[in-house]
Write a structure and sequence with these properties.
The chain is 40% helix and 16% strand. It is globular and about 55 Å long. With 287 residues, it is an alpha/beta fold. It comes from Inquilinus ginsengisoli.
Length: 287
């Protein structure tokens, strides 16, 4: 793992595959770390691309914008998704990647959309995985928001609860392509051990809301774009992804029956074929 400076901030970065291959930059979702990318996805992409992953600000081992644990949760909004998109564009430059394929998961898809709209010269293609379009706010189904809010006692700001987090993650599953509970638990335990920052996650949630509606921005995207989404996603309804794809000229959407919102080895098995087909077609055209 390397630490890469973008302005005054430092980001934890890892690379996989041949640096001579076309670069693809993966942008993580809310509270997710670079270790949360399924290895099957990294491995499949690294066979044809130079893969770069990183921790977003306020996550994992990257720069923090306040305390990670406290007896009291703050209400400040020190940044928005537009600032996180500037981080991503800055990393592209700092790493000398030139034009990249961008893949964003959930919140990372929203960040990648902003990068593609504002920095078209840096983006070869855009893939939005389990992500929305330009809609404002967090779109999780009411029962998801209620369960996550009700099951967050103040003591979680000081110490993690792996059992609780595993039960919460299970709420993100669809009705097919279900992640084994042991995998969910192992991933959560590894992430907690590496970097537990619940207040950073809260700041990211406020960053999503503060970004507002981005519909007009999506209309400016010129890079070839693919949305990959599950029909049973309980966090971002598939209709929100369809609406986003409709705003971007030439974008298309691949809907996977029964897929939910968890980024797991099971989800990777469903997403890899359409993703590789999309990227492979672009590289063949480029040649």
């Amino acid at each position: 793992m390397a630490r890469v400076a973008v302005g005054d901030l430092e980001f934890a970065v890892e690379r996989f595959g041949d640096p001579g291959r076309p670069p693809i930059l993966l942008v993580q979702g809310l509270a997710q770390q670079l270790i949360d990318w399924p290895w099957a996805l990294i491995e499949a992409l690294a066979a044809i691309h130079h893969v770069v992953v990183f921790d977003n600000r306020d996550t994992g081992l990257s720069a923090k914008f306040g305390p990670c644990r406290s007896d009291q949760e703050g209400t400040d909004t020190p940044y928005t998704l537009f600032d996180m998109a500037a981080d991503t564009a800055g990393l592209i430059d700092a790493l000398g990647l030139g034009r990249v394929h961008l893949l964003g998961y959930s919140m990372g898809g929203r960040i990648a959309q902003i990068v593609a709209a504002r920095h078209p010269d840096r983006v070869r293609s855009l893939t939005c995985l389990m992500s929305s379009g330009g809609q404002a706010g967090v779109l999780a189904a009411p029962h998801i928001r209620e369960a996550l809010g009700a099951a967050r006692p103040p003591e979680l700001l000081r110490a993690p609860d792996i059992d609780l987090f595993t039960r919460q993650a299970a709420l993100f599953e669809g009705d097919a392509w279900v992640t084994p509970e042991a995998e969910l638990r192992a991933r959560i335990a590894a992430a907690v051990a590496r970097g537990y920052c619940p207040l950073g996650s809260a700041r990211q949630i406020r960053a999503i809301g503060a970004a507002g509606d981005r519909s007009n921005l999506l209309r400016r995207i010129t890079a070839p774009t693919l949305f990959i989404h599950g029909s049973a996603d309980p966090v971002v309804p598939v209709e929100a992804a369809r609406a986003g794809a409709a705003l971007i000229p030439g974008a298309r959407i691949e809907v996977i029956a029964g897929l939910g919102h968890n980024l797991s080895s099971t989800a990777a098995a469903a997403a890899i074929p359409p993703l590789l087909g999309f990227l492979g077609g672009l590289e063949a055209t480029a040649v």
